[in-house]
């Protein structure tokens, strides 16, 4: 489980990613990679020779990194740079086994043209070529020891403000509450066992209808996770598994409305206290919480899968 300090360290690192560009971004990436890989070697350009497309490498793995942090990402320029620096690496480093193009996408996602270029290079050469964005870097950062994380962000304050919500699920809720997902995926078909799971758990009426309705919005949750820390989805799942277990302890199984009561109980506890102070904000967060619950209902992290009890 993430602690308040873990959350605050991650917030500081995310802010650095949003603000860093050029050499500052390169130094930040090097700090993370040196903490993650024991034998990572950062490379500085040498006069007119430059760096031969190499901003750092892991000798034991043959992994070479090119780091690019423009103020504004231009798709064509980013794809061109990914290709040009890869060509330089191939000419000067015969031990090249894997290529990592680190782009500061500021959590917007790696442009499709960059991914297409990397895939084409891999098909042509057989060398593993992948992109690393801000979400991946955040994942690496969160996996570091607390001491290393503190050094990278240069410390954190002793106390968090009361309005800060350090839970993993809070990041998803804030995103969903702020951005309209529209009608969702109207072409989506419910999983074959979706209704079976609803019946198995004794869900009917209001709660069942809400789960079915909000399941069309879970694509917005998946899209959010794609550009964030890869571990975030699992962290949210773990928080909701714990929350569901607590709901089972709080609401007796003998109650004929137990399943529906647990649904409302979890929604109320997913919503952060600060969001309950204003009705319009509460409404947005309530729908966000229900969308998240629908997502993890599908994956069987909340409620029971048929045949498991």
TrEMBL record:
Domain ABC-three component systems C-terminal: 168-303
InterPro entries assigned: ABC-3C_CTD10
Name of the protein this chain belongs to: ABC-three component systems C-terminal domain-containing protein
Organism in which the protein naturally occurs: Acidithiobacillus caldus
Source lineage: Bacteria, Pseudomonadati, Pseudomonadota, Acidithiobacillia, Acidithiobacillales
């Amino acid at each position: 489980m993430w602690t308040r300090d873990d959350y605050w360290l991650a917030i500081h690192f995310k802010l650095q990613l949003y603000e860093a560009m050029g050499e500052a971004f390169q130094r930040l990436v090097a700090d993370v990679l040196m903490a993650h890989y024991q034998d990572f070697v950062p490379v500085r350009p040498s006069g007119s020779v430059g760096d031969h497309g190499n901003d750092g490498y892991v000798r034991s793995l043959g992994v070479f990194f090119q780091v690019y942090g423009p103020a504004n990402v231009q798709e064509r320029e980013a794809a061109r740079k990914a290709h040009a620096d890869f060509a330089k690496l191939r000419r000067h480093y015969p031990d090249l086994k894997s290529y990592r193009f680190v782009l500061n996408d500021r959590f917007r996602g790696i442009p499709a043209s960059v991914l297409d270029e990397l895939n084409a290079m891999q098909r042509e050469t057989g060398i593993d070529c992948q992109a690393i964005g801000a979400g991946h870097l955040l994942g690496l950062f969160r996996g570091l020891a607390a001491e290393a994380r503190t050094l990278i962000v240069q410390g954190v304050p002793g106390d968090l403000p009361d309005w800060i919500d350090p839970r993993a699920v809070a990041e998803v809720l804030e995103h969903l509450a702020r951005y309209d997902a529209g009608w969702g995926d109207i072409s989506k078909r419910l999983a074959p066992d979706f209704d079976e799971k609803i019946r198995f758990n004794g869900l009917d009426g209001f709660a069942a209808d809400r789960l079915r309705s909000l399941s069309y919005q879970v694509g917005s949750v998946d899209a959010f996770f794609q550009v964030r820390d890869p571990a975030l989805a699992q962290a949210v799942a773990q928080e909701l598994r714990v929350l569901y277990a607590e709901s089972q302890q709080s609401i007796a199984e003998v109650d004929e409305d137990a399943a529906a009561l647990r649904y409302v109980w979890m929604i109320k506890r997913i919503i952060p206290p600060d969001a309950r102070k204003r009705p319009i904000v509460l409404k947005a967060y309530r729908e966000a919480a229900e969308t998240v619950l629908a997502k993890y209902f599908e994956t069987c992290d909340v409620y029971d899968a048929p045949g498991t009890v």
